[in-house]
Write a structure and sequence with these properties.
There is one protein chain. The protein is an alpha/beta fold. It has three domains: about 230 residues, Rossmann fold (3-Layer(aba) Sandwich); about 190 residues, Rossmann fold (3-Layer(aba) Sandwich), CATH 3.40.50.10490; about 40 residues, Phosphoglucose isomerase, C-terminal domain, CATH 1.10.1390.10. About 50% of the residues lie in helices and about 10% in strands. The chain is built from 22 helices and 13 strands. The strands form three sheets. Strands 1-2-13-12-10-11 form a six-stranded mixed beta sheet, sandwiched between helices. A five-stranded parallel beta sheet has the order 6-5-7-8-9, with helices on both faces. Strands 3-4 form a two-stranded antiparallel sheet. Strand 5, helix 7 and strand 6 form a beta-alpha-beta unit. It starts with 7 loop residues before the first helix and ends with a helix. The protein binds 6-O-phosphono-beta-D-fructofuranose (F6P). The site of 6-O-phosphono-beta-D-fructofuranose has 14 residues, from loops. It comes from Aliikangiella coralliicola. GO terms for molecular function: carbohydrate derivative binding; glucose-6-phosphate isomerase activity; monosaccharide binding. It is found in: Cytoplasm. InterPro entries: G6P_Isomerase (IPR001672), G6P_Isomerase_C (IPR023096), Phosphoglucose_isomerase_CS (IPR018189), SIS_dom_sf (IPR046348), SIS_PGI_1 (IPR035476), SIS_PGI_2 (IPR035482).
Length: about 550
């Protein structure tokens, strides 16, 4: 077998796991008052506390050895220097170049891409400024009041997540909407209250071939032309962000209204490019610069910090520890910030599309677990939904908890209550509640022995459940940029250790391909019989109900 399973560092970790698996974090905290200092990292205004994990100093040393043996340091340099590490598509992986604040040259095929990046960013900012200043006028010389981003996956989730997270920074008389689903209810609900004269559509699609986006874009175009029937007016209401300028132009979008992407930016890593146009319109160019700056700082932290002080490396290694040694199948991301409500959904694509792979870089089938199932929700509502399983279920679910120290409006009664839950949850997950503690509690309540016996096992919490906590000053553009980039790099490090290519996504192709074929079956009046009996049966039933 191939790296990592046969490596010495992996075997050493396996042995260490056998020796330490029954150690309880409660005892580790009791034995070491400095545990928080030892296992936390500060970076800009972010505090990353990973002390509530099932680790000791030796665990971290062994995990770092694994990362080094896997070639993580070399691969970091390869990524930043533009080597084509996405080998199945023969592409560089340079989302970091999009936020390269130093403006140091970065080469792809011998060409410095930074001037092109700067040029496109300047165009994006110019358009955003004119819309925000009400200088970009629509068909009837009215300013734009509503912007609709039509896109899916990376052309949707990043812009949506950031726009929501930074709501307090948005212009409130300019509404930004997002349409992704091919289900017509999504676009119809969005267009319901909009006026074509004051609406700008951004067709965001790196490929400009994605069916969902193309169908929605066509519906938007028809909606517009049915109300303002003059194709020349489209120029004031439709712009595109794409690598496929020809297709966008054929769709009817003027060359001046097409913003460029490059093949060295993966869709799920593209919010820093012109795909972020809706973000720039919403929060303004200066705030977008802050977002890029925060990500740039995280890039420097990742590239330059020794692994023991490197947040994304530690995040990645902890994930591997649970995934590959404890057998955890999932991981949860739980922001205690209402505006971060799309953060877990965004990370689902970033993480699961990147590391949901079963073939290694050399083309061999893998016999170890790779990317986890990522899920999550905002903190407080999920406490009343699925935390029961986190505390007393039979599965180990490592969690990341993220919370701002100050709400945008400043400290308030709400915020202290919110934060008390953050601290309580991580404490409860770690400590649990022993039989003795439950017994004492029930005795004080005056319960009979029989009642105590009946209730006791149900009230015990095993604890020893891992969590990372991120505390940051406020949810501002710079910090958000840093947080996103830290997660991007965590995914990168895990991909290297698992020896997979985190930057392709062949796994989404099969369904797309079959859907195109099945569209023909649906349009064909004949009974369908070319699939398995279930698929044939479902298609035929659907068709019979439609007539
Ligand atoms: O889901 C597959 C995928 O290719 C994603 O990687 C991508 O973000 C999304 O589709 C949208 O692709 P495009 O921007 O080309 O429309």
């Amino acid at each position: 077998m191939h790296f990592p399973r046969n490596s010495e560092s992996w075997n050493a970790l396996q042995q260490h796991f056998e020796q330490t698996r029954n150690v309880h974090m409660r005892d580790q905290f009791n034995d070491n008052r400095a545990r928080f200092e030892e296992f936390s990292i500060r970076f800009n205004d972010i505090l990353f506390d990973y002390s509530k994990n099932r680790i000791d100093t030796e665990t971290i040393n062994l995990l770092i050895r694994l990362a080094k043996d896997a070639g993580v340091p070399e691969m970091i340099e390869k990524m930043f220097s533009g080597e084509k590490i996405n080998h199945t598509e023969n592409r560089s992986v340079l989302h970091v170049a999009l936020r390269n604040r130093s403006k140091k040259p970065c080469y792809v095929d011998g060409i410095n891409i930074i001037p092109d990046v700067e040029y496109e960013l300047a165009r994006v900012k110019k358009l955003a400024r004119s819309i925000r200043a009400r200088e970009w006028l629509g068909a009837t010389d009215q300013p734009i009041t509503d912007v609709v981003n039509i896109g899916i996956g990376g052309s949707h989730l990043g812009p949506l997540m950031v726009t929501e997270a930074l709501r307090p920074y948005a212009l409130h008389d300019l509404n930004v909407h997002f349409v992704a689903n091919i289900d017509e209810n999504h676009i119809n609900d969005t267009l319901e209250n909009l006026k074509p004269e004051t609406t700008l559509f951004i067709i965001s699609s790196k490929s400009f071939t994605t069916q969902d986006t193309m169908v929605n874009a066509e519906t938007a175009r028809q909606w517009f032309l049915s109300r303002l029937p003059d194709e020349k007016l489209l120029a004031k209401h439709f712009v595109a962000v794409t690598e496929n300028q020809k297709a966008a132009n054929q769709f009817g979008i003027e060359i001046d209204n097409i913003f460029k992407m490059w093949d060295w930016v993966g869709g799920r890593y593209s919010l820093w490019s012109a795909i972020g146009l809706s973000i720039v319109i919403s929060i303004g160019p200066e705030n977008f610069d802050q977002l890029l700056g925060g990500a740039y700082d995280a890039d420097q932290h990742f590239r330059d910090s020794p692994f023991e002080h490197n947040i994304p490396v530690i995040m990645a290694l902890l994930g591997i520890w649970y995934n590959n040694f404890y057998g955890a199948q999932t991981t949860a991301v739980l922001p205690y910030a209402q505006h971060m409500h799309r953060f877990p959904a965004y990370l689902q694509q970033a993480d699961m599309e990147s590391n949901g792979k079963f073939i290694d870089r050399a083309g061999n089938q893998i016999d170890y677990s790779t990317g986890p199932i990522l899920f999550g929700e905002i903190g407080i509502p999920s406490q009343h939904a699925f935390y029961q399983l986190l505390h007393q279920g039979t599965k180990l679910v490592p969690v990341d908890i993220l919370a701002p120290i100050f709400n945008f409006q400043g400290a308030s009664k709400h915020h202290n209550a919110l934060m008390s839950n953050v601290f309580a949850q991580t404490e409860a997950l770690m400590k649990g509640k022993t039989e003795q503690e439950v017994l004492d509690e029930l005795s004080i309540q005056g319960l009979s022995e029989a009642e105590i016996e009946k209730l006791l096992p149900h009230k015990v919490f095993p604890g020893n459940r891992p969590s990372n906590t991120f505390l940051f000053e406020t949810l501002n553009p710079k910090t958000l940029g840093s947080l996103i980039a830290l997660y991007e790099h965590k995914i990168f490090v895990q991909g290297i250790i698992w020896n997979i290519n985190s930057f392709d996504q062949w796994g989404v192709e099969l369904g797309k391909h079959l859907a195109n074929k099945i569209m023909q079956d649906i349009n064909n009046p004949e009974v369908v019989c070319g699939h398995d009996s279930s698929t044939d049966g479902l298609i035929n039933y659907y068709k019979s109900r439609k007539v």
